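input
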Amino acid sequence: MKVNIFVLLIFLLFNCQSKEVNIMNDSSKIKNNLSIAEQLAQNQLIAYNNKNIEEFLKQYSDNVKIYSFPNILKTEGKEEMRKIYSKMFETLPDLHCELVNRIVQNNTVIDQESVTFKANEPKKSAIAIYKIVDDKISEVYFIQ
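output
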């Protein structure tokens, strides 16, 4: 399974256009030349790091689905996300996600991330794949 994921990521890295994104402190500073997909991914990252649940959820469709890659449904719906992420934002003061790399292709954004849950614990590496439909994040696939 790890080999398949590695092959998929290598394929995407060499066959998709890549854009470098500067992490900014607030979503109002996002450059106008970013695609809608990239803006949504960046906005939700900024809101996540600011622990702003309303701004975070604004980027997602009402019926968003969150999967563990490749197809294990973990969460469905914005209100379920609200419960999960509100608790994380409240109970993990050190929570922070660092963008390591981003690939944007049409309506898909693939983020390589390094996530801090607790300052005294090692960072966790993750891949998040965001699928955009009707200008909202409609599906997320996590690889951890």
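quick obs: The longest strand covers residues 96-105.
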